[in-house]
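Please, structure for the following, as tokens.
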Amino acid sequence: MPEHGGGILRAARRYGIPPAEWLDLSTGINPAGWPVPALPPSCWNRLPEEEDGLEQVAQDYYHAPLLLPVAGSQAAIQTLPRLRRPGRVGVLHPGFSEHAAAWRRAGHHVDAIAAERLEAAADTSDVLVLSNPNNPTGIRFPPERLLHWHRRLAARGGWLVVDEAFMDPTPEQSLCPHAGKEGLVVLRSLGKFFGLAGARVGFVCADAPLLARLRGLLGPWHIATPARLVAAGALADHAWQRRARRRLAAGGRRLEELLRQSGLAPDGGCALFQWAPTPRAREIQQRLARHGILVRRFDDPPALRLGLPGDEQGWRRLHAALARLQPPSPMEASQ
């Protein structure tokens, strides 16, 4: 299984720090997510119904001509490769590891593609898969460039798959309004911006035939009634969304500046996380963990991804821990 952020219980056992005492910055999830109200008791004893209005409120939010609710975008990531015969798939690297793993499991030949090679890969791949903004590096691709790649792929019967899990703070850059075009697949999730990762709700925006095939593979009732109810409420709460975008933009700038002052200058990021390449990634991750702060480490290339603290106490705690970081000793550097 690919490694992901989170895992507080595992970290608690390893470092002997109770789970409640951890500051988890490893996931990029909004720490001040949409406030879930009390749910009606009836939602627990009713089967999910597609006529509950979720699809329409999601289409309005994403400006998507067509979409399919799924049990988190992970459900689509694992299922989409089964809709094509094995072929050549270019996947942005570094990127969200589940994409490459899912296409490989389905028998496709997967090429790890650096961002600067995507332009050429649009002419040599049957499918091109990327995240925008990219997770974990934060690199962005203008919609016009992505649509240009899509046209080239679609002309040969190919697909462009764009994972927009971190797009909500900048909705004007989304490809969802174009997702009715054949060969364009856009994935969205309520896990990051809305802070509802536990609800497991996502959406696939694509053309009608592809969505019908995907629906057939996923089967009925794959999103629980309470999760559908929560998702519809969050997507319809435009006032909360506006406040969250302002708050997250300020938090992203604050985190970028804090890391820069601490000698971990970010080389990319978005409103929900910052990407800091450093040869000391493993050492720094472990030293922060000893203070109960969990961050995500990457090895290829060595880097850290840090999300936002949820309150002022968390910000002060991160600032103090970063201030204690010192350059490695000659012995550490040689290891």
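The first strand starts at residue 23 and ends at 24. Residues 41-236 form a domain with the Aspartate Aminotransferase; domain 2 fold (CATH 3.40.640.10).
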